[in-house]
Amino acid sequence: xxxATQATSGGAVMPxxxxxxxxxxxxxxxxxxxxxxxxxxxxxxxxxxxxEMAAQLAQFASLERxxxxxxxxxxxxxxxxxxxxxxxxxxxxxxxxxxxxAVGDSAVLKGGQxxxxxxxxxxAAEVTITILDExxxxxxxxxxxxxxxxxxxxxxxxxxxxxRSTSDGVYRxxxxxxxxxxxxxxxVTTASGIITGVNYETGIAILxxxxxxxxxxxxxxxxKPEG
Length: 227
Description:
The protein is α+β, with helices and mostly antiparallel strands. Helices cover 27% and strands 37% of the residues. It folds into two domains: 2-90, no CATH class; 99-223, Immunoglobulin-like (Sandwich).
């Protein structure tokens, strides 16, 4: 950007659409238009002073260099982004068959069995797991006592609070936990399973774990399956 006051010194005619009082700077294209307008409208009997002309040409040369650097930097950043996405996507495809632990609040009930994964920041005296269906209705509430901090897995037999079997499918669950003094213990719901495939959405790799999907940004750990 160029100082509009300096660019219009010497009483030159201002091109239409460029007003110096509108803003303190003008753009690359506006500066070029202004320079050409000055040359076209100056009095042949009283041409622009050579010092002033040289100063404006120097300004324009500097602006051209900055404009070029800006374009090259933008192109470089675009190339880096594409390369990083390509590397991430290639790595994601190589993870098929690995076991993943990722942040998520969903669990798949299949054949009357589901494992609910979560992580406790500290040991908890009381933990309440609330399981909800697709409509957000509470299906089952499970309570556990005296759990250590760290990764936890609680099995759900697929029955609701009345003891009736529920249909297979994807369910959500929430965790509330407290210590022996009644203070809240932070808990993060997670999901774990074998990566069965990879989808790509707008260039971002999405890991498939059975019926569940996790963006790469939600992944906590990836490891070889036990056994």
